[in-house]
Amino acid sequence: MEIKYEGRKYLNYLLNAFFDVKPGEVKKVFLMQLNIFLTVTTLLIIKPVANALFLAQIGVDKLPYSFVLVAATALLLSRFYSKKLINRSLSNVIKVTLLVSAFALIVFSVLLQLNLLESWVLYLFYIGVAIFGLLTTSQFWILSNLVFNTREAKRLFGIVGAGAIAGGIFGGYLTTVLAPLVSVENMLFVAAFILFVNVKLNRMIWVRYVNQLNTYQHQKRVVQESKHPIQLIRQSKHLTYLALIIGLGVIVSKLVDFQFSALASRSIYDPDELAAFFGLWFSNFNVISLLIQLLITRRVVGIYGVGSSLFVLPAFILFSTSLLFIFPILAVAILLKTCDVSIKQSINKAATELLALPIPSGIKSQTKSFIDVFVDTAATGISGLLLIFVVNGMNLSTTAVNILIVMVVLVWFYIARKVRIEYISAFKQKLIRQDGKNGKSSIDFSNESVIQGLKKVLEKGTEKQKLFILKKIEQLKDIRFATQVLPLLESENIQIRIEALRCMYFMPMIFDESLLIKYLQDKNIEVRQLTFDILLRYSTEGRVRFIQRFLQNEDPLVSSAALVGLSIEARDNAEMKRVFQLNSLIRDKIDYLKIIVDQEELIAYKSMILRSIGHANVEEFYPFINQSIEIKTDKTIVNEAIKAAGFTLNATFVPVLVSLLCKDEYKDTACQSLAHFGPAIFKDLLIYYEDPSVNSEIKQSIPKVAEYISSPASVDFLLMLIKKEDSLFCINVLNSLNQLRINSPHLLVNKKTVIRMITEEASLFQDILSVLYTQQKMILSDADHELNKKKIELKSELIRQLEFKMDQILESIFKLLGLRYPPEEIGTVYENIQSKSQEQRYAAIEFIENILDNDLKKILIPIIEIAALDKLTDEVVKSMQLKKLNEIECFDLLLNYGDKDIIQSVSAIVNISLKEEALESLIKKYSLF
């Protein structure tokens, strides 16, 4: 037993040292690696078999038709598949996909061996293999996002993905060995058996790692779309070029695949030998790709930059295709295919991922899978149509396909050049925007690679520019920036220090522990926490020993920082909690609070303990969080306790956090803490809003929670609240919607919805304006009658209320415009419309007239012009063509409006006018008394 324990301990040490796999994560990583390994192994068994049988039995000249059929089937299936994924559990969808695929392979094998419907079966088999590859890999990465939290995913997706490379190598070589021995048809039984094993494996993963997630955790790990990715791509020139360059790469890849398949089928006639050949080279391509990735990719991308790296793949394809013109033999076709597959999966993939760096993360997450799947599928269909036209339609030889490859590659070069320019421009514009100036950037990007430009920003840029670049570098995880990031740890700007530390977390340690140790005593809690995270990640003495060393440090700030770091690492890791006896450590720290005399030290120490409890999510210490909130001895402690409640993602804290929304000093922290629960919190918040017993101040603060949740669900939730009657509340919601748009520009509201809402507000503005004008005229006519003095006072009050409501409606209109146009610009226009300076008001009208669409311009400009006037005149009313209303019609309209204050004022006027028979219908209609 001792030997077994020591062996496992040593294995954990090696995995931690080389791959950053912590105790308790080994089994999870292994199961997910095995999952993708089996999936890709299956694909690399059936793909060579499908290719070999299709080419041997049907012929290479029909291959283009299969490309088109694959694209058409994938596009049709994706719509059906998306609906099923929404309405059913991912676990069931994965299970059905694997089982259907396994039984289909068995059926195909039997039909092929019996020579039944051979042509149809081969077409269906070829298409099915392509669809299988798309579906299963997509499902795997969706499952991975549920199994691993964000922190784990950043560390472990690399090693998990290595399972796919291993499966690609193993599956192909297995096919090479077995195909000549058992025949290609029987290889399908082997693949089906692997899929049945994978069904059990997926079930095990789901039960162990997904079922334990609560509603909040589950929804936080699922990417939601705000609008269709095609719209997002069309709105961004950078995304359009990115999609084009990926699409062109797929077209060329399919043309290369055709050449490779054509020359292979001409040289090898036996299906079993052809399957073995494909299996061998598909594996070889993976091996070569891995070697290039490990030995060459970083150097090429690092030295020549993203823009130049984009030309490597098309250049090698152009060179290989030129050789194929001279030597149309299988060896050159292998070289061409090797360049296509190996460089695409290494250098080109790295360059493409870096190319997406300037794209906001929200848009990137929504469009990446669409580009990977839809663009790939559409490009496959286009390549099929091109081949049908060139090879079959024009009856040309494969030499013509070489010419076609060269033509597409030349277009590829052109788009690569355009996308390089756009890439540099995107960064330049971002930096100018971050600097808050309209002038030129102080950094010249035109004479150097973007990477060098980023380094210069970190050395000489403004604080805003540095913050922007640091956030982007965090995504790169590249050691090349460490030299520039390290000095920023000394910045006086706390946010820069924090962002610099976040970057260092994903860079290999190139400095010793002593350089960072001092930041464990920093006054800022975030700095202390992040510093420990980095020290822990890159420790060479082993995690257990390292954490224990810092937990025993004499400085309470250092030991408490170690406790927070341990809590974060062990949150979803029961084994780590057990190994470090986390509950006992927290308990000891709480006991230590009793002997701390210095108040400042007590606050700092207690804050770290609260964070530890929140991140570790240990229910035993929930009362400590509640007590810290209830006692309210110190604002810092209460705010830390509120944050800790949010970190737990536990439903028991939701009522506590909601109750704090009416406390001004804790409102913002409570909103952010509730936002930490993710989109699932909206269901709870809606219940509170609809509860009549809930404090109105709490209801007023509910929309602010959505400002901190960058999700389409936030937009939907706020639009739902806008439908409520209280106009003041509506403005509150619109403020939150505008702020959400500023924080997350990719979250757009449907254009038709915005225009409809603006039109409704504009119509209401005009109606109230008609009533206002009528009432003003009536006051003048009633002024001569002493008996109407009370009525005049009431009507004057009503007029003040109407003017106030018109101001509210105008503000609502501008807030709605902020959902259609840049909210910062619209906000500036609104401020100028309210200005006392007539010149500023007219300038604002001129500006907004130039940016509004024609459909909105006709509706809004007259209203805005009236709002800018000091006085309402007969000429203005006449030009507006307002409704002419009598007193009854005015009251009817206002009572129907539903505003409580206005109804009260109208009721008071009606009350002193009971003798007027014309008002009796209103009294009955609206039950005024």
From TrEMBL:
Keyword Membrane: yes
Transmembrane segments: 36-57, 63-81, 93-114, 120-144, 156-175, 181-199, 239-256, 276-296, 370-390, 396-415
Record carries keyword Hydrolase: no
Keyword entries, A-Z: Membrane, Transmembrane, Transmembrane helix
InterPro entries given in the database record: ARM-like, ARM-type_fold, MFS_trans_sf
Top-rank lineage group of the source organism: Bacteria
Gene3D superfamilies on file: Leucine-rich Repeat Variant (1.25.10.10)
SUPFAM superfamilies per record: ARM repeat, MFS general substrate transporter
Annotated protein name in UniProt: ADP,ATP carrier protein
Organism: Plebeiibacterium sediminum
